[in-house]
Amino acid sequence: KLSINSDADIKIYGDPLKFSQVIANLLSNAVEACEARADNINKEVNIDIRLQANKILIKIQDNGAGIKPEHQAKIWQAFFSTKTGVASGLGIGLASSKNIIEKDFLGTIEAESPETLPRLVDEAIDKDVDETEKEETND
Predict the structure, then answer these.
(1) pTM recorded for the entire structure
(2) Which CA distances in Å does 55 have to 8, 20, 30, 50?
(3) Which of 3, 11, 29, 46 is most buried (most C-beta within 10 Å)?
(4) What tens digit of pLDDT does each residue of 1-59 get?
(5) How does strand 45-52 pair with strand 2-6?
């Protein structure tokens, strides 16, 4: 089940292709985490988009398998992956997403994942981007 909740009229300035890449990566990871669960009960991905102070806060939460505590510090590193077998990844998705959010959108990205609770990925994008940057990145 996919749920999307959003404040009205939120605009994000920047490269739409890069932003789409980040969202696609985070959603793909959320769906894969749900698929990794042993049961088939109530697999959910929730997206919440809110304006909070001068930040746009995007939360992607799933009730998937979670991230083991020993992996949490490594998930943002290039070439680190917990996936194995046919579904194994290159380990560049989250590292690339972090780089895009921090460098191109002047934001932050973080993850919370107690193994017994749903995973939560937050990204906050600075809403106060210089007007010239808006024009340059909005082409």
Answers:
(1) 0.74
(2) 14, 18, 23, 8
(3) 29
(4) 888 888 877 888 889 999 999 999 999 888 888 887 777 778 888 899 988 888 888 88
(5) parallel
Enumerate the β-bridge partners of residue 38. Answer: none
Residue holding tokens 């690339």? 96
Per residue, what are the HEC states of the chain?
CEEEEECCCCCCCCCHHHHHHHHHHHHHHHHHHHHCCCCCCCCCEEEEEEEECCEEEEEEEECCCCCCHHHHCCCCCCCCCCCCHHHCCCCCHHHHHHHHHHHHCCCEEEEECCCCCCEEEEEEEECCCCHHHHHHHCC
Under the phi-then-psi rule, with left for phi > 0, alpha for psi from -120 to 50, and beta for the rest, what region is 35?
Answer: alpha
The Cα–Cα gap between 28 and 81 comes to 14
